Amino acid sequence: MGVTKTDLFTKEQNELAILAKAFAHPARIAILQYLLTSNKCINGDLVNELGLAQATISQHLRELKNVGIIQGSIDGASMSYCINPEKWENVQQLFNGMFDEIQNCRPGECC
Amino acid sequence: MGVTKTDLFTKEQNELAILAKAFAHPARIAILQYLLTSNKCINGDLVNELGLAQATISQHLRELKNVGIIQGSIDGASMSYCINPEKWENVQQLFNGMFDEIQNCRPGECC
DNA sequence: TCGTTTTATCGTATTTTTACGATGATTATT
DNA sequence: AATAATCATCGTAAAAATACGATAAAACGA
Question: Mean pLDDT in chain A?
């Protein structure tokens, strides 16, 4: 018990869920918003920006990197992260593909 | 430990995370897609459609209802659920508000 | 009224997520 | 070379999420 039954669902449904999970924590939203507005790539000064431990930030960064929406590059002793623009647009389209399905829903037949 | 530190983040960041969490399971994506395409509201025949127990479906439905993206109405002995169109559009705009911030990101200064 | 259908909720087992200290690896600085 | 700075990973504790059987509540039909 307690295990998500991945095989019951379509590939798209699982992918959407995995991507949504990446957004499903305020710290990761904050990291992404910081990356979006900082323009240039940043490193672990996220530790100062957010009030979380270095290990925790690193863990969140890894999860965002695992799903591909951010990417990292070595910059001396530090590490630079930034949004992956292609993936970002891909994710937006995937979500909007779902959001836009509401147009097939006729209001009169809804509750 | 193990508790999300909600007070560290903005209201918007927390709200986005909560909404994303609602989408962060393939069963809930499947439920939403079913509701989107079924046009008229449906009830617990989701139990047949997905391969999950009745209690599990009910639990997922409650989570979707708690964040307001679906709503339920009593229909005799059964229960009809449907998307809440206003909330749906609100959620789409909130996500796109974040997605669109990528436009401030200048490619040359990214890694 | 009695039995059936339908759904929500409770209780609970299992897994996953979240958080952080400690450690080690790598690079920069002195 | 020695020290400092930076970051990933390990180990682990605590909490949340996931799933389902069992049960209760509400509505319908015979």
Answer: 91
